[in-house]
UniProtKB/TrEMBL annotation:
This is Aldehyde dehydrogenase family protein. It comes from the Bacteria. InterPro entries: Ald_DH/histidinol_DH, Ald_DH_C, Ald_DH_CS_CYS, Ald_DH_CS_GLU, Ald_DH_N, Aldehyde_DH_dom. Pfam families: Aldedh (PF00171). PANTHER family: ALDEHYDE DEHYDROGENASE-RELATED. The active site is at 252.
Amino acid sequence: MTTNSQQARNLIGGEERPGIDGGEFQSVDPATGEVLGSLVASTERDVDLAVAAARAAVDRDSDWQVPRNRVIVLNRMATLIRERAEGLAVLESRDTGKPLLQAQADVAGAARYFEFYAGFADKLDGRSIPVGPDFVDFTVREPYGVVAVITAWNYPIQIAARTVAPALAAGNAVVVKPAPEAPLSTLEIGRIAHEAGVPAGYLNVITGGGPEVGMPLAIHPDVDLVAFTGSRDVGKLLGSAAARLIRPFSLELGGKSPNVLFEDADLEKAIPAVVNAIVQNAGQNCAAGSRLLVHRSIHDQVVAAVGERMGSLRCGHGIGNPDLGPLITQRQHAKVAGMVQEAVAAGARIVVGGASPEGEEFSGGHFYLPTLLSGVDSKMAIAREEVFGPVLVAIPFDSDQDAVQIANDTTYGLTSAVWTADVARGHRIARRIRSGQVYINTYGVGGGGSAELPFGGYRQSGHGRTKGLEGLLEFTQIKNVCVAL
Ligand code: NAD
């Protein structure tokens, strides 16, 4: 595992290499500021080297082109991740600040992605198309070639796994650039891939900043596809750069996802799920349930119960397994605190939280208390924009129509949940909510990152799908072959 006693290295062409231009940066524990590792501040020259290694890999005839071999090696990666789960979880918890239990779940999820996509690697068949007795026509699903993967810091090992595993399963070579705030577990995935037998050049990991590494990678002439996970603003930049090159790309962006509670909801089930959906990973979750839409007849009761539960939660260093760790950086903390202040100035009421926790143990990190705001109007910025912190807004509604209108009243559309005892109503509302996932009487399925369920955004939450079979097909392109007899 990477520690500050090790030197900064990229993983390129099956080798650990220092950066060409010698720059470094450090990854720190966001709860204490302690340095965890030195990383290569890569430059365009490292990007060129990594892309060349990936290109050489896909251009070389090798056993990797036999799908069954990819099944075996990707399953081996799942096994190695499971064997090293504890060390990986500690690394992930310290690098991101998240509670150890959540990091353990993320590592289990990462192993599951490799296992899940390993199972598909030898099942990517095509169609035979009848065009008459004089022709044989069929389709082949081919890899794109070299895939640039650019990831966010909030679930680094899971995001790397859910993107790299299908890209490799489909036969592509990958260059991953993890976020500089939490890159350590992605480097470990690269090392594990090498050990499991992924041939040199098929998985390269280069570290560094977005403008310095992410953009040159995305627009590199030898990259065939860009898979981006991150913020809407950077997604717009990368998406337009890729579009100018007529290069296919996928964008997994942010959200402002609603939990919609009707008057007949099972509150014993719903309230813990509502709280978990906003405090998991300290709310730094693209799929955070950051809006609580409640039927007016139960609004005050639900707000009181959710507030009580949020107020009882404990912040702390991730390794001690608190309910919430710190926010990732001082910048993120300032953004969260600023958005709450603005909301209060615009008329929102703080039910609970709205501040950093007090005490010596919090002085070295960027902690923020679980926060519930009421008196929020769906036109306020706090109800429309992603906060990316443990901040929930409660908004009352009066009818089914009203609930749908408010649920759809953002430019995002990633996840949503409807809580009702009336199954027919649940389905009717699910059909009308504009988001890539809708849950009824749950928020997620728990355990292992739900690899089976396609995930991605409607509207400005993104473009393309990750997870599930759909997440694999994103990394393939169709060739039609027609033979005259
Ligand atoms: P970010 O957009 O700041 O960074 C994401 C990645 O892009 C990082 O690797 C970063 O270094 C790189 N980057 C930054 N600027 C760049 C530029 N100009 N050119 C090229 N690359 C650049 O996002 P973040 O702060 O790391 O992550 C938080 C965001 O990610 C939130 O909006 C969250 O909702 C979103 N997210 C989405 C999903 C999803 O699956 N939909 C999952 C996790 C996070």
